[in-house]
Specification:
Strand content: under 5%
Order of helices and strands: HHHHHHHHHHHHHHHEHEHEE
Distance between the termini: 43 Å
Length: 561
Amino acid sequence: MNTIRRFWFYAVTLVALGIFAAGVERLLSLIFQITIKSAKLTQVGGTNFNQTQLSLGLALTAIGGPLWLLFWRAIQRRVKGNQEETGAVMRKFFLNFVLLVSAFILVVNAAGFLKWLISGASADAFSPGGLALVIVAGVIWFYHYRVSESEGHPSSAAKTMRRWYVYIMSVFGLVMLAVSLVLLINAAFRNLPVWGDVLVAGKFWNTSTQGNAAWIVFGLATWYFHWFRMARGDFNSKLRQVYFYLPAISGGAVAALVSASILLFQVFVWIFSGTGAAGSRYFQFLGWAVPTILVGLAIWGYHQRLAQEEAGRVQEKRQSARRVYFYLMAFLGLATTVIGLSILFGLLVETGTQMTVTAGWWRHQLATALAMLVVGTPLWLYYWNGILKRVRAGGIDEWRALSRRIFLYVIIGAAIVLLAADMVTIIYELLRDTLGNRFSANFLNDAKWGLQTLAVAAGLLWYHWQILRADQRRGAETMLTKRDITILADDRGGDLAVRLENRLGYKTHILYLVGQTGAGMPPLAEEEIERLVNEIQSAAADKLMLVMLDGRITVMPYRDK
């Protein structure tokens, strides 16, 4: 089939499947209403909702079922024995889209059904539509899963479509598991008999905790099935690296860091207010803060360890996702540090004005600043030092990396905007006070929002501007012409190739001279590498051979014909 015809077939099949599924769901929901909730099909003098539901369900099923069967069988006849159709992007998109939607519906409604069961299975609380959706979505998912797995994934596009489904569901299950676990622990903590005479949340085993327990079961099942079974052995996937370093490792780290910041803030406020000033229920925040830190660290640690174990198998593909992770965490740490410093400087400015007379006015500001500095500064230092090491070892590849360019330009741009806003605020307040003949300490108080971020923004701009200019001088933003380079050298050719590739940003080919050795020869000087790079970039030919003889390297352009 051509692309337009294939798209048409799958689009109509998807619509027909939706109609058929909606009809079956209506009929099953009506059956459960009658059998479990004891609803009547007709009510004399009453509503005719059940009759409407029956009529609509029969109509949708009668139209959608045959229509879906007709088009699906036509598709299957064309796919059978046809490798091109089996691996077509449209087919794999259709199958994995149906799997994704049906899996979401199945998991959400199955968790709701389990919640109903563990809450006592009361007929009044029963949701007929929820159970009907569990059955319909489960059947649709299982059938399309069997079809997808039985025919395999013969093309790279087919593998990519499957990976999108697998890793989206893995993230969904992991998030639901983590959030529900924290909420359940928090509910248990808040109901401990240590908060005085009044229980904060009432009865522990209530609707909320029952829902959290159900979501822990299905979140764990969803993550386990997709991560440990469907994603098992998928080491060559870039999406696997994205899953590792963005939602799993970065997500776990961010959750732990945010919770740690809030925890420190609350502790500092408690200390500054006097340890006896807080009520008996002040520390209830520990019920969610500590579990969030522990769960976030567990997710971060598990995926970080697994990513390191798989690093040797996918070193080249791993670098891009890991680089993004490093810059993202460095950015979060830097942003947290900058906010903390700005609040601290603002506190100093406000103290200098002596305009605030409210007792304890400084506590929340100082607690916020210290919490952000304690969390953000070590985070930024750790990841920024890691970036500096990567840059020193990686050469031009690291200097030219898109994530590095975005990181630097975003910070420099934000610093410029912040400086401009600060200067506008300061000049405005200065002119207003001067022209109004009322210049006094009020100026510092009015302009404190500009003054407190001025020094931070200036330092931020100067430091990252120096880094950006150094990268530009190294050629990080220069458009390089890729050459076909062959190196003919003694046993020092490997070192030469690595150093050239780091400077040029692309691979070379090495041929080793038989019987030639570089033993006793001095290592190649950096000036020699610089000369070779300049000659390669300025050469008129696209094919070059570098010949190393007696310690001298000659760049020789050539052509095949």
